[in-house]
Design brief:
The chain has about 170 residues and is of the alpha+beta class. It contains three helices and six strands; from the N terminus they run H-H-E-E-E-E-H-E-E. The chain folds into two domains: about 80 residues; about 70 residues, Transcription elongation factor, GreA/GreB, C-terminal domain (Chitinase A, domain 3), CATH 3.10.50.30.
């Protein structure tokens, strides 16, 4: 492995660590919130005063939804922990753990990190913004298997957007 590949592997590890840090932070907030909702659902004041009083029931639904989200985040963290960043050779096709630079129609460029979890997160690296996309996202589906120089078009709520793949790392 050359120095450039090692540096890129390090970059991807840093990005994965950033995703983990965001998920851990969200997990802490959710756990605190779920405890509060569970306590509210079981508190004596939540006991129904009449058949239309649903405070306790609503709090229990909220606690259940938060517990489901906690389980989802834990699962995401496990997947990310098992993710091994890989280097991409010149003219390689885009696949998982690719760091892809796309040129926009306006002439700017954006970085996208393709991993199984963490979609929509914006990370900061080397004074640039990196958007996390998954292979299941519309953009991720369009990118998989493409090579440097290819153009992709995606339909968004704002209309059609075209991108040119500048680099795959």
């Amino acid at each position: 492995m050359d120095d450039n590949s090692q540096a890129l592997g390090s970059t991807k590890k840093i990005l994965l660590e950033q995703i983990q840090a965001v998920l851990t932070s969200e997990l802490e907030v959710l756990r605190t919130s779920a405890r509060s909702a569970r306590d509210a659902a079981t508190h004596a004041d939540a006991r129904a005063e009449n058949k239309y009083d649903t405070r306790g029931l609503e709090a229990s639904y909220l606690a259940g939804a938060q517990q489901a989200r906690i389980a989802e985040i834990v699962s995401q963290q496990q997947v990310l922990s098992a993710t091994v960043p890989r280097p991409f050779a010149a003219n390689a096709a885009i696949a998982a753990t690719a760091l892809v630079e796309l040129r926009t129609e306006a002439g700017g460029s954006d970085l996208y990190f393709l991993v199984a979890q963490g979609a929509g997160l914006r990370l900061a690296f080397d004074n640039r913004s990196v958007l996390v996309v998954t292979p299941q996202s519309p953009l991720g589906r369009m990118l998989i298997g493409k090579r440097t120089g290819a153009c992709v078009t995606i339909n968004t709520a704002q209309g059609r957007k075209e991108y040119e793949i500048v680099s795959i790392r």
